[in-house]
Structures are given as structure tokens and as C-alpha cells.
């Protein structure tokens, strides 16, 4: 069976080849109904752009570089699924690197992708990244970059994030309304955007319920949950306070599961003695013991929107200037780890 071409689609839909071409590139110049018709017909007929021909035509590689902290993190794997689902249909290949939360690896990965002449970059910052020169320099030279999830304030470009403040606020309110008053917050490095946003939501919830903010109940894990010893040390400090927490609100997959592991190791009953809510997209949250109450981010949708914005920058460089910050709503899913009777047993 011969591969279908843009000309074939145009003839079938009674459209010009230029209209079909722009619709397949998700151009803002084409109305949504026409885009829908073209995309549905292309999918039905298994149309796939020829990346070599496209590259020869416009001197682009038709590839996008993606740098994330860790693929094993379920949130980031969902993010990649979203990125690839859009990029593939628009004729772009995706090259994925992991920074493992290392600044040096992030810089090395960036340099390699640029040397391979990718058309643009999608970045979620490493937890140890505080110097943004490698990105600022590339943007000044005209390379399109879009940030998602962990985003820098200092760089002006498109950004796609979850509404971390609202997710954190609602999680903390839920714990308060469940009768908790000493709510510990275990989180990532303070200079990450997700950390400051989630901390702000946590503080606002305490303020709205007239609960004083206690700095001793907040622990910042520099490696964001990847180093077991760091997680355990933070937990031990909190549990050994004169007045230990009666709840934990954790800010990532690894911090959440690490927290649960320490509580279970110390035979602390969840949620009777200590309740727990975590920011996590792990698919087995409901299979944990007890099932975990979670703030879930729309990871796949974040990836889809981020790559759409990046391809817009790549294909319409003259349209830059009106940058967007898209903030997507999170979901709070209530399960047994925070819903249950509280008993006043001192943690020793």
C-alpha cells in the first residue's frame, strides 16, 4: 500500500495542499474545524510526514530535545507520553535525556542536543540547577526553548506548569479538616519553582485556619527524594520533635513513598497516628498499604501543551514575544492514608 501524501489528503477533502500542510503543522492560521477534519483524515489514512524530505525542504532536523530529571518517575514518564503523542503526529522525533537532578549532566545533555542540531528544547530543571546561563545563551542565539513543571522565573518563554499552589492548598485543608494540626511538609530544594509554589499553598491553608506556621515542620531535601539517607534523616528529625507531626504532606513521588516506608518501619499507624498526603502520579497509589491520598498532576496534558507551544516557536519564529504561562488544574484523590479516625498516641 502506497504511503498517503499531503496532495492525497487535499484532494480527498477538497482543500489546497498549503491548507493541509499548515493544518498538519497545527498552524494558528487554520481554523479549528479544518484542523480537526485534516487531522482525523490523516490519522484514518495512517499519514506520516517524511522527516527526511521535511528536513531537506526547510533545513530543520525535525527533532526535539527533551531533558527531564528522571524517566523512572511516573510523572515524567507520563509527561513524555504526552510530548511524543503530539510530536509524532506533527512529524517530529523526540530525543530524551535524563539529568538525574545533576546540573553538570543537564549542561552536558543540552550541549549534546544542540550539537545534534535539534530544532528546540523542552526542559524540566534539575533540582541542583541554580545557574541558567546555558539556557539563556542558547535563547539569545535563537534556539526555541519551552520549560515545563520545574520552570525558571528569570527566563521569558512559554512555560507549562501544574497549579501547585492550589493543589498544595487543598491537600493541606483536607488534612486540617480531618483534625490534623501539626502538619509536616517534606519537600524539594527551596529554589525550585514547584517547591516555593507548594510551600505557599501549604502556608496559606494554615493561615486560613489560624494555625501558626512552624518552620521546624518543614524539611527541604536537596536531592528531592532520590537519596534514601537524606529522606530518612528528615523524617527522623520530624518524628523526634518534642511535639511530633500528626500528618505529613509530601511534595513528590519519592518523598511520599520514602515517608511511608519510614512510618511503617517504625510501626506507626496510618492514618490513626499520622496521616499522609502526597504529590504523586504513581499508578499504584491505591494499592499501597494503606491506599494513598494524592495530589495528581495532569502530566500527559502538560507534555502535550508544552510540545505544541515549542513547535509553534520552531515553525513561526517571527511570532515570538507573547509568551504564555499555562497552569493546569491538579486533582486531589482521597484514600485511606488520610481518611480515618485520629488517635492521640505520642510518637517515640
Characterization of this structure:
The protein is an alpha/beta fold. It has three domains: 1-48, Orthogonal Bundle (434 Repressor (Amino-terminal Domain)), CATH 1.10.260; 53-161 and 299-329, 3-Layer(aba) Sandwich (Rossmann fold), CATH 3.40.50; 164-297, Response regulator (Rossmann fold), CATH 3.40.50. It has helices at residues 6-13, 17-24, 32-44, 51-58, 74-89, 103-115, 133-140, 164-177, 193-208, 228-239, 253-265, 299-315, and strands at residues 63-68, 93-98, 120-123, 145-148, 159-162, 183-187, 218-220, 247-250, 275-279, 293-296, 325-328, 331-333. The protein has a six-stranded parallel sheet, with helices on both faces. Strands 7-6-8-9-10-12 form a six-stranded mixed sheet, with helices on both faces. Helix 1 packs across helix 2.
